[in-house]
Design brief:
heterodimer; A: 195 residues; mainly beta; six-stranded mixed beta sheet; elongated; B: mainly beta; five-stranded antiparallel beta sheet; 11 strands; 46% strand; globular
Chain lengths: 195, 125
C-alpha cells in the first residue's frame, strides 16, 4: 500500500494518509496508539485562527489553536498557511516547538506557499483535543491589522485496536509491530531536541 | 498550488456630494458572514474609478474612518473636472489593505456638484 505515508508531495490537494479499515499508529509525545480508521472526510480551507493585530516588531502571545481540536477517537490531518505578512512559530502541543533545528526554530511565513506550493512542510496531525499553538511575529516596520491562519485537511474517526479482551485485534497489533501488517504512522505532536 | 487567494468584488457606486473629511462616506463595508469563524476579513483596493460631475478639478481621499479618525490608505487622487479617472494596481496603485470599512471624500466641490466613486477590491480571510 504505497499511499500509507504522511508528507505527500503531489501537486494539488493532498491525499488522506489512511482510508476506511486501514490501520494507523498515532504517536503523541512518547505514546503510541494503534487504531483502525472507520470514517474519513475532507475539511475545506477555513480560517482557523486570527492571532490578532501586532505592533511593528512585536510578537503575539503563544495562542492555542482550539479550532483545530478534534473530538474523542478522532485525529485531524492539516496543512496550513498564513495570509498576513507575519512569521509564525508552531508549537505542538503548546510546550514543544515544531520545525526545530539545533540552533533555530524555523518559522512559517507567506513565502512558504511560494516555495512549497503543496504546503508539505506545514503538515501536522492533531490527536483529539491535543491542539497546536502558534506565535506570530511582525518583522516589519508597520503595525498589521491581523495575523490569520488558514487550514485545510482531513478528519479521521478511529477505533481502538488494543482492547485487552479482543485477542483478534491484539494479534493484528502484534503483526503491525512485527512489520507483517501495513500501518500508517501519524505524528500528532512535536518532539523535543534530544528527546 | 493549494492557495489561490483572490476573491474579487466591487463596491457600489457612491455619490460624494459633500466635500471635506467630516463628510467622508462609506464606499465599501467589510463583509461579516454569519458562518465566519473568526470574523475578520480584509480588503485590498485594486482599482478606484472616479467620475467628476463637473465639480471642478480636485482630489479625492480614500481611507478609513470619518473626521478626526480618518486615515488615508492612498495618497490624494486627482479628479479632473468633467472626466472619469481610473487608478489601477496594474498601473501603479498600491494594493492597500485594510480590516476596516473604506471611506472617501473629495477635498473640494463646486456648488451643487459631486463625484461618483467605485472600488474594485480583493477580499481576504
Amino acid at each position: 500500500m504505497p499511499d500509507l505515508y504522511i508528507f505527500k508531495a503531489q501537486v494539488g490537494m493532498f491525499d488522506p494518509v489512511a482510508l476506511q479499515d486501514q490501520y494507523v499508529a498515532i504517536h503523541y509525545i512518547q505514546s503510541i496508539f494503534y487504531r483502525k480508521v472507520n470514517f474519513v472526510e475532507a475539511i475545506p480551507p477555513f480560517q482557523c485562527a486570527n492571532l490578532g493585530a501586532i505592533a511593528a516588531g512585536a510578537v503575539t502571545a503563544r495562542t492555542n489553536i482550539v479550532n483545530l481540536e478534534m473530538a474523542d477517537n478522532e485525529f485531524g490531518l492539516f496543512r496550513w498557511w498564513t495570509i498576513d505578512d507575519v512569521q509564525v512559530r508552531l508549537y505542538h502541543p503548546a510546550g514543544i516547538a515544531k520545525a526545530q533545528l539545533r540552533n533555530l526554530q524555523v518559522p512559517y511565513d507567506m513565502n512558504t506557499v511560494n516555495r512549497d506550493p503543496n504546503l508539505v512542510s506545514s503538515e501536522i496531525a492533531v490527536w483529539e483535543d491535543n491542539r497546536p499553538a502558534m506565535e506570530a511575529i511582525n518583522g516589519s516596520a508597520l503595525a498589521i491589522g491581523g495575523s490569520r491562519i488558514i487550514a485545510i485537511g482531513y478528519r479521521f474517526h478511529t477505533e481502538d485496536m488494543e482492547d485487552k479482551d479482543d485477542q483478534k485485534r491484539l494479534a493484528i497489533v502484534k503483526n503491525i509491530k512485527d512489520g507483517l501488517q501495513p500501518c500508517t504512522h501519524v505524528w500528532c505532536s512535536g518532539r523535543g531536541i534530544g528527546d | 498550488m493549494l492557495v489561490e487567494d483572490r476573491i474579487i468584488v466591487n463596491s457600489g457606486v457612491v455619490n460624494l456630494a459633500v466635500a471635506g473629511v467630516a463628510a467622508a462616506a462609506v464606499v465599501y463595508t467589510i463583509p461579516i458572514l454569519a458562518g465566519q469563524l473568526i470574523g475578520i476579513k480584509s480588503a485590498k483596493i485594486r482599482k478606484v474609478i472616479l467620475h467628476n460631475n463637473v465639480a471642478g478639478t480636485t482630489t479625492v481621499l480614500v481611507g478609513t474612518g470619518v473626521g478626526g479618525a480618518f486615515v488615508a490608505l492612498l495618497p490624494a487622487l486627482d479628479s479632473i473636472n468633467g472626466f472619469t479617472d481610473i487608478y489601477d494596481t496594474l498601473n501603479g496603485l498600491p494594493e492597500a489593505e485594510t480590516f476596516l470599512n473604506i471611506t472617501a471624500y473629495p477635498v473640494a466641490l463646486g456648488a451643487g456638484t459631486s463625484i461618483d466613486i467605485q472600488l474594485e477590491l480583493e477580499i481576504r480571510g
